[in-house]
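Let us begin with a simple case.
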Amino acid sequence: MEPRSATRPRTEGVGSVWKTNNARQNKVLSEAIHIIGGGLAGSEAAWAAAEAGARVVLHEMRPVRATDAHQTDGLAELVCSNSLRSDDWENNAVGLLHEEMRRSGSLVMRAADAHKLPAGGALAVDRLGFSAAITRALEEHPRVEICREEIAGLPPPEWQSVVIATGPLTSPALAEAIRRLTGEDALSFFDAIAPIVHHETIDFSVAWMQSRYDKGDGADYINCPLDEAQYRAFVAALVAGEKTEFKEWEKSTPYFEGCLPIEVMAERGAETLSFGPMKPVGLCDPRVGRRPYAVVQLRQDNALGTLWNMVGFQTKLKHGEQTRIFRTIPGLENASFARLGGLHRNTFIN
């Protein structure tokens, strides 16, 4: 399978010349490292291989084929959270991995550091700037060729070195080919996306800026406080709210436990959220001088600071219900949403 955007040999002149050039081109393509998928893993793999001296062909199906979660056709687009989690290399395993990647010349970490946003002890980035930096670096690398095409099945046998890095948003055709090859029947789970709010619509007579335990710059998150009555009414609304219905073939697909919809967590018990994404520890409401019963935190989502995402608020509530229920949160009564939450199916190998 020849990459769609690969340079084809000239066709003028004697047919044997064309065949010779075509054979040479096919040999170059077969000897290259083919990386399928231009997300975080594929982009990092392409960069590392090219920096080590290899010729790389990076295959990315967007924009030829879209996914249920991507918003752009940029490489390494962050579709759910804009946080890469803790950046504390001395006390956290994820932070240690970040530092190891930096010292290994990681493109992902270089872009993340260049587009870092305030996020307490976490490493959060401007999504668009982060993706654009990685896309530009790979487009400009002399040993990387980016082919915008779908690999609709297992790679051809003449490709000698292949990395499949399509991740959870693998195309249906490739996912089916992998399922047949591995014999796996359980190759999917559901993941969710949190809403994003316009900063100018947040009421700062109620909300305040503070990082949990004053980490980072001490005021990296917007905090919306709830007392006990408000919290219990909010949980009840989440449980009763109208949700997206699954298709029959989707009903046996599990959720990803690390990114549960907010209403699924609420269904597990009245206090689940107050010990989860709405925990108030390490925070003090300056209006009353004490910790609230529960809190909704928002994290900066773009470099301008005009967009803020609701931390841990991934959801499968219908859009109208999201707007209605989330506007009951103190400080968000007049919130305008740049993006509402959603649910998408992920693919993985067990």
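The second case is a distinct protein. As before, the sequence precedes its structure tokens.
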Amino acid sequence: MSAPVVLITGGARRIGAATARRLHSKGWRIIVHYRRSGAEADRLVDALNHQRADSAVALAADLTQTSELEALAQRAINHWQRLDALVNNASTFYPTPVGSATEQQWDDLIGSNLKAPFFLAQRLADALTSASGAIINIADIHAQRPLKQHTLYCIAKAGNVMLTKSLARELAPAVRVNGVAPGAILWPEDNAELSAAAKAEIIDKIALKRAGAAEDIARTIDFLLNDAPYITGQIIAVDGGRTLSN
């Protein structure tokens, strides 16, 4: 029961799942939040619990709904009666060209990428303070370098970066708060999918000439949680050198 506990939002798939597996291998107990990916969350939790009994649980919530967010926070605290880390990974991403963006898209993109991380951090601040814990926010390199036709997403992630720095100052010295800004790690899905030509153009601008992997982000989160006691208020770009190019 002394093992630390982490809540990972959007933890059932992709970067979230890779982070869950990585931290679990380091002895953490994992709370996997999901919205629609119930089957994937259950499979991941079952696999983790098979490796170590009572070490993972899945909790559902729509983080754009404040009441569900509040309930998630309380259930996360209650499950093992402690919380040592919050990883704000859940996100939505899709194009919103100026001229066609809607208020619903504003609410969705700002809600998932900025509003939810703030209110989760606020709700969990006392528990994290008691544990001398940490918060990791998943930002984006496009918080500083705008991505064409993605104005709302870029606004939200730019706010996420300032949220990280503000929380780091507000919650110090008890809670460390840092961000990880992925570059081309996993290609977008659904209505944000890219063509082969668009992917090739992105790769050409990356210094290392390849896309990264979810594990690259998971390793960075692992470092910030487990091996960086004197780092707070920082945004670490994990982008293969993408931000070096013009």
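Strands lie at 5-8, 29-34, 56-60, 85-88, 134-138, 176-182, 235-238. The longest strand covers residues 176-182.
Keep these points in mind for the review questions at the end of the chapter.
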